[in-house]
Design a protein that fits this description.
By secondary structure, the protein is an alpha+beta fold. Strands 1, 2, 3, 4, 5, 6, 7 and 8 form an eight-stranded mixed sheet that branches. The model has no long low-confidence stretch (mean pLDDT 94).
């Protein structure tokens, strides 16, 4: 895998070009690829922090990190996405390892809760997350809540 350049910013620190790249990648993955019609802009981005992996100026990996109380009582990692051209090369795992590390340092204690697409259970389990709730449908896709407590 080519070395990505990582940035971590609050919403207010994002430049317009960066925000556009974030929204574009999220739309490519969640709306177009997954054929899911939903409102991506949910008013949680403003309270969140944004971890971006760039390659030659192109956003190829992204997550948002939500403070405790934004989605769950715990801190959360959401909108996890990797550009189709960068999957299967470890970018997604690197992205999540960085996101977990940052979240644990920034929001000590309380764990990290995620709403994961169910088919990714094995991936998130390999990172230490454990299923913490029953499956549910969100935007037509089966999800599960998972919790990392270490």
């Amino acid at each position: 895998m080519k070395e990505l350049v990582w940035t971590y910013k609050s919403f207010d620190e994002l430049h317009a070009v960066e925000l556009y790249a974030v929204l574009k990648l999220r739309s490519e993955v969640f709306v177009v690829e997954q054929n899911c019609v939903y409102l991506d802009t949910d008013n949680k981005d403003q309270a969140s922090f944004h971890l971006c992996g760039w390659l030659h100026g192109e956003l190829v990996a992204y997550v948002r990190i939500l403070p405790p109380g934004t989605s769950y009582k715990e801190a959360s990692i959401g909108r996890v996405c990797t550009a189709l051209s960068h999957r299967k090369n470890g970018a997604g795992r690197t992205l999540m390892i960085k996101a977990i590390d940052i979240t644990q340092k920034q929001f000590e204690g309380g764990g990290i809760k995620i709403g994961a697409q169910s088919y990714l259970n094995k991936f998130y389990s390999s990172l230490g997350f454990q299923q913490s709730g029953n499956e549910y449908i969100e935007d037509g896709i089966t999800h599960i809540e998972m919790l990392l407590t270490k």
